[in-house]
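[Q] Does anyone have a clean structure-token version of this?
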Amino acid sequence: MINRISTILLLAVFAVSCGNGKKAEQFKALPFPDCAVPGMMTDRQDIAEYVAGHFWDGITDPDRDYPSDSLLVSGVRKADVEQKFADWTSILEMIPFNQAEKAVARLYDRAVACERKDTSSNVFETFTDLSYKYLYDPNSPLRNEDCYNAFVRRLAGYEGISPEMKKKYEYDARMTSLNRTGTVAADFRFADKMGRMHTLHGIKAPLTLLFFSNPGCDACLNIINVLKGEPQISGLIDSGRLAVLNIYIDEDLQGWRDYMPIYPEEWYNGFDPDLIIRTDNLYNVRAIPSLYLLDEEKRVILKDAPENRLFNYLADTARR
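[A] Here you go.
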């Protein structure tokens, strides 16, 4: 963690802007205005929290007067802003969630302030798009539904969007509110290959991995192979410290049964006989595979976690 913080944070220098109002076609793109860490701040965690919260202050200053168009965001190349957004999401992962949520909310508030000051600015649109792309898109390796919820629930209440987009953002806010980190995961019943009924909350283990998968899914097979083949992680399963619930939530039960030899016998391998996990919106399963890690009381530790984040967490747990 220290090396990552040092790389991303400690080289930050705040670039003071002096707007000159040049047109975009006459304008030479500016460097990204990085956040300066106060000199008296030395603790790595304090630095991470400060930078996460103030990362965007330079570029989201409503009084900043630089061109914004399809290539520039407040005078900075849009590609540079996007790379910085990816860096920022990595910082959010280093800090407590309540601090990450505040950082996301601060970005939203400042982006809206830019929009209200000048509706021709693309600052608000840029950060709305980047928040979805990096924090919520199912294909993003940096996705974080809880952080996206902090952005989208505010976005859903913004008066400057169309009724159609308002409905979309309200739906996203509602779905990202399901099974938030730190809350008890919604219970459901499932049937095993013999037709015996079980419940999620009936599984007794210090940790439970809730693994939404489909037969024939290559990404699912890769996860299965890592869980079986990585000694530290498979050791958690063998010792009983980690239970795996591999759950199928669609309707092709014959295809699921045909795939059964691929699934380890020591796992809980089941299907949703009631087909309620999606239809009742118990879980926001937008893509397969989807991974949730739960504690002994079935509180959510990791929600729809990217694979590498889950594997790293489990490896760290095994070493403790």
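[Q] Thanks! Anything notable?
[A] The chain is about 40% helix and 10% strand.
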